[in-house]
Every structure is written in structure tokens, then in C-alpha cells.
Amino acid sequence: MSSDTARITPLLKDSTSITMGTEITIVIPVYNRAHTLGRTLRSIEGQKVSPARVILVDNNSTDDSWETMQRWSNHMKECGHDVMLFKERKTGACAARNRGLREVETSFVMFFDSDDEMLPDHVADFSEAIRKNPTCDIFGRSIECEEADGKRRKLYFTAKSPMFNHLFRGCLSTQRMVIRTELVRQTGGWDETLPAWNDYELGVRLLLATDRIMDIGGKTTVVTHHLADSITGTSYSSRHEHWEKSLDRVEKHFINIGRKDLARLTDARRMVLASQYRSEGDTCEENQMRKNAIHQAARLYAEVIDKTDSPWKMKAVYLHNRLFKRLTWALARIIFPLG
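The line above is the sequence of Glycosyltransferase family 2 protein; the predicted C-alpha cells follow.
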């Protein structure tokens, strides 16, 4: 039993959250997160307004995750809260999320990760925004990201130019949004063929289906922890095929609806990714990993240049990111105006 798991039972005795009307269900996929799951569950229990239901889906964990989920579920049920546990044998967070989605009965759903935490006002703030704006389909808010070294940075959500900002800034990442349940179902749910950046791809489908999106503003109420064993991890070049598969899928969505302007943006996003590969090559100490990062950067760069009708713009995006490492979205906003 992990130390985090061992601490969960005594902390559960002092639950002070309020059960009141809310249209939000929380769905959490879990895979070998006994070392972080206690933190996530305690943060849900500490909400000033409790969610209507919490759905935990174990995805073939081999550690103590299932036992942690059971203990927490039993306690919460004793306190009158609605918690459901499931096991999903099909591998992948998307399959686990879709399993949980099938059990959602509320109008809105919040997909959360088992290594992140929400501050006490999180559910309350989104519930109030939904109450005041019942016709909106997507509600979002900026979050804090804590890196492995303990440093934090803000990851922004914005409802302005949502497609552009999502493509370049990932505004509709899992932890930043609450979505109308029927919208997720109508757009096909989570794509179980994508091993990573699946919320990136889902966000594109959501934005192609609705423009009723709202930034609820206010202080950040989620801290996401960037861990080496998370889905995103800490290296891009070592799993290049994962990110690029999602970008390919997004580009296909745009081509299918005749939006060449948006498809062009996916090439610009590939150039940012190529720059990230190359930056990893600059800093990697292990020789083979360094060579692979440099190779993947050169390959992806060449692929974009060979296919694009705007080679100088693509080169500008790449060079900007190589030089400054950030704010490349601002340059892209200028040189790639949307029609």
C-alpha cells in the first residue's frame, strides 16, 4: 500500500462538502495511480458543492488503485454521495472515459485525471456558471500546471477565437472544461484509437459542432501535475507518432468540411512540434535519444515544407519557436488569418 493510499481513510472522516443541486458528473479514468489518486479524491471530497455523481473507471491497474477507489467509494456512499466504480478492460484512457460517459445522467460532464487536483470552489463555480448560462455547451477556465521541479505556470482558457486558440494553446484540455453531456455523445465521444492528445482532437470536434462556449473567469481552481508517467509525459520526440497521429486526425476533420485555412494551421502546429523535437535534441544528454530527437525534427520539418503552399510562413513559425520557445501562437495569429 502506498503512503498516499494509507493517508486517505483518516482524511475522509472530516468531509465538509455540501450536497446541493448541480448538473455535473465527474468521470475519472484510473491506471496505476495509487501514488496520486488519494490527492485527487481528497480534492473532490473537499468541494464546497459536491458533484451529482463521481464515476471512477479502473483501466487494468496492477497497483493498489482499485482498493483505494473502493475504500473511498464506500466512505462517500455512507456520507450520502453518489459514487460508481467500473472496470474497463480495453486499454486506454479514452476507452475508460467512454465507459464512464455511458453512465452519466446529468446534463454536464467533467472529465478529470487521476493525478490532478481541484480546489474547493471548482465544482461550485462551474455549477453557478451553468445555472446562469443554461444555453452554453462548453464552460472553461484557466488552470495551473505544476512541473516536476515544482515550478508552476498558467495554462490559459479563452472563448475568443476558440478554434485557433485550441489548436495552438490546447485550451480545451481535459482539466479546463465542463461539457454538455449530449454534445460529447453526439460528436462521437472519445476516439479510442488515439493514444495521446485525445482531448486535443475531441476539442476540435466539439468546436466544429458548437460555438456556445464560455470562459467563466475568476481564479484558477485546478492544479494539473506534469509527471513523467502521465499520458503526455515529458518527452515529445520519443513518442512522435502519438502526437502526429492526433494532428493527422484533426487535419482530416478540417479537410472533410472544406476548411483549408484550418487544415493549414495543423501544418503550422506541426512546425511547433518539430521545433520541440529539436529543442529536446539540444538538451538531451543520452546520445541515441539526442540523435532520434534531431532526426524526428528534421523529418517532420521536411514533411511540412514538402506539402505546404506557404513554405516561408511555416519556416517563420519553426524559427520563432526555436528562438523564443513560447508565444509562437501570436505570430501564427498574424500570418495565418482565418477566413
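Note on the example: The first helix runs from residue 3 to 6. Confidence is low (pLDDT under 50) at residues 1-16.
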